Amino acid sequence: MFFNIVSKDTNSSARTGIMRLPHGEVSTPVFMPVGTAGTVKALTVEDLREIGFQIILSNTYHLYLRPGMEVMASAGGLHRFMAWDRNILTDSGGYQVFSLSNLRKIAPEGVRFQSHIDGSRHLFTPENVVETQCIIGSDIQMQLDVCSAWGADRKEAEKALDLTTQWMGRAVQTWEQKREEGYQGSLFNIVQGNFFPDLRKRSVEACIAASTPGIAIGGLSVGEPHSAFTETLALTAALLPHEKPRYLMGIGTPEYILEAIENGIDMFDCVVPTREGRNGRVYTRQGPVALKKNDRRMDFMPIDKECACKVCRQYSRAYLRHLFKNQEILCSMLASYHNLHFLHQLVLDARCAIDENRFTEFRRNFLSGYKKEAE
After folding, report:
1. Cα–Cα distance list, 18 to 21, 52, 67, 95 (Å)
2. What is the rounded distance in angstroms from the CA atom of residue 325 to the CA atom of residue 316?
3. Which residue among the candidates 91, 145, 266, 304 is catalytic per the annotation?
4. In degrees rounded to 5, what are phi and psi of residue 311?
5. Which uninterrupted H or E stretch holds 338?
6. Are strands 267-270 and 30-33 parallel, antiparallel or unpaired?
7. Could you state, in chain order, the average pLDDT of each consecutive group of 10 residues for the chain (375 residues)?
8. Annotated catalytic residue 9
């Protein structure tokens, strides 16, 4: 993997760059749509190409359980299986296992868990998670980590960090072996430490020492208040090496994306844009619009009159509300397409602002008109 910083904003830590990965270049900052089970819900790969995405995210835990690695190996990897010829980043599945707290047991060896599908028992170790992502053919893969929740005490947070650090070394060793065997993808390690500044610093130091191609910030967007998020993000990002790509896991609303970019984050992902699309909530420059509201019934404006996506060029809010009320699948497709296009364009505009050294002004102007819910 090659990462090159192209431009920097002098009034913030925002920057643009280019990553060269096995399936092509990726311009940063970049928002990655989430295709958990090998599909970005309600969109085709042609839709994703049309919008302009160069990389998407999928999930090791879900693909491991279904369709399974026998199918994945026989298909020749996820790219061929889903007919996607651009880059894929895979999460290790650590967060999914974390969220199944009543179905798993964490030990130094790894994580023993029960499938949420059929109750079958499985073991994830740092080694076999790397091997699984190699079978998937990930262009960027993540180490297995332990995420602690907002409100966890220091003892719990420190235990999670120590395991994450131990597993990091084992993951790196396995990844290096796979590279010798011909695997071309990169491994990112993950910063943990909950919301304790000294633990965050310790984790960053361990990640730097492990010398992986990129570093991810984990353990944010786990239920904490916004003030805790911004404080911990700023602290962590400032400690990361400038020459490596930085990935903030699990954020994807306009205000959080701009916060991340301002702090020098290069990559981010979230299920929210497509989830909200399926639930009839769409993004505009004035804030999200709920299609289900009665006053949308006679609203023949496009979702966002400034948006150039094919949905806004062809359809009205009233029509999308009609589809939503009738539970038509087309509403999910159109609303999800628009939301992803909206965020992709927001990031493109942010890149342009960074290149022209006006990102702080751009962020301020965007947020001045953006409300939690549009009129």
Report:
1. 10, 15, 33, 27
2. 14
3. 91
4. -70, -45
5. helix 329-355
6. parallel
7. 96 98 98 97 98 98 97 98 98 81 88 92 96 98 95 97 98 98 98 98 98 97 95 98 97 97 98 97 97 96 97 98 98 98 98 98 97 75
8. no
For residue 265, give both structure tokens. Answer: 């984050």
Strand 24-28 and strand 30-33: the pairing is unpaired
pLDDT at 100: 73
91 catalytic residue (yes or no)? yes
Of 9, 139, 145, 269, catalytic: 269
Omega within 30 of 0 (cis) for the link into 213: no
Contact assessment for residue 187 and residue 175, using Cβ atoms and an 8 Å cutoff: yes
Cβ-contact 57, 35 below 8 angstroms? yes
Q: Which two tokens stand for residue 171?
A: 């993951």
Give the separation between CA 96 and CA 81, rounded to whole angstroms. 23
* Residue 178 near residue 127 (C-beta atoms within 8 A): no
CA 292 and chain centroid, separation? 28
**Domains in the chain with CATH codes:** 2-271 (3.20.20.105), 278-369 (no CATH)
Contact at 8 Å (CB) between 267 and 352? Answer: no
Measured distance CA(200)–CA(125) in Å, rounded: 23
Q: To the nearest 5 percent, what fractions of the chain are helix, strand and coil?
A: 45, 20, 35
Element holding 230 (H helix, E strand): helix 226-239
